[in-house]
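FAQ: What does the model actually see?

It sees only this:
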Amino acid sequence: MTVIEQVKAVAEPKAGETFADKARRLAAEFDRDAGGHDADDSFVAANYVRLKAEGLVSAGVPAELGGGDAGIGDLCEMIRLLAHGCGSTALALSMHTHQVAIPAWRWRHQPAAKAAVEPVLRKVGSANAVLLSSGGSDWVGGAPGAERVEGGYRIKARKVFVSGAEAGDLLVTGAVADGEVIHFALPMNAPEVSVKDTWHTLGMRGTGSNDVLVDGYFVADDKVALKRKAGEWHPLFRVIATIAIPIIYSAYLGVAESAREIAVGLAKSKAGRSPRLAGEMDTALRAAQLAHRHMVAVAEANAPSEDSVNEAMIGRHLVEVNAIRAVELAMELAGGPGFYRKAGLERRFRDVQGARYHPMRREAQLLYTGSMALGDPVTSIY
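And it is asked to produce this:
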């Protein structure tokens, strides 16, 4: 039974469903409208209502704090399966999910951090608060926008690639002031915060990854969660990289898997099909799956470090290259029928291209990995 057939088989809610079961069922539902969101660049807002109702938004919150207590592997599986139906929904949710998984990891493994992370986890667990990320635009180097004022900082910044901005409650972000990055969360309903309609892209069009403009928001000193030196890896960023990357790349793996299924279905119905081409496609896809599995295992080892960052980023590179290649081969295998929008394959071809753009991009990863191999410092490679 293919994954698409499995999705259809669990289309109705059942008692005792796992998050993977729910993701399979919702994927079939979301697939029906995915083409429409892709066609008009509209955010998958209705899907977020369903994700909240089914408990997927709070899945990563510890049970003691009102959530689903899902581990990293479970969260990755949830995102991967959602991507079979709608890559945009899966990717947008992954940006929230990793922002939940990181404080949840700290709550479980860093006793000193419990008091700091528990309030936001409770907010997600009890009220389905949606967390937004600006990590791709801020990352290790940080981005400008914080000015030191009496009692805190004044923030004037433009945050790009904020997936799910329309549905968000808190933007977890940072800004540079005097060579130091301050980290904080700001409420999306603050009068100084606005969402700009900038997300008109090749693929992943339904993620609503618009720019967020922050015009003078005040962050009090006691609301600053962390201060660190700009442009250098901080221990917390090792946690972030180790946990976030496998969750995010679950979406691209799911897109590639669904493209493969569509292509096989189309190829079986035509004469002159190419078993060798199908074999090449499945080999590329298996490489992506194995690399992703390794990323999850590294994250589940609960030992974030320079080594875990290296392994996560090697996996990220391999998933990117092989997921994109698998979808390219799916297009070739499907032939002309795959070129039509109604097949859903060309949307997946465009969606998977987004795998190129998350940190660490290939050149930085190769330099980081090579420096690790040679025993050179990696503190400023990101």
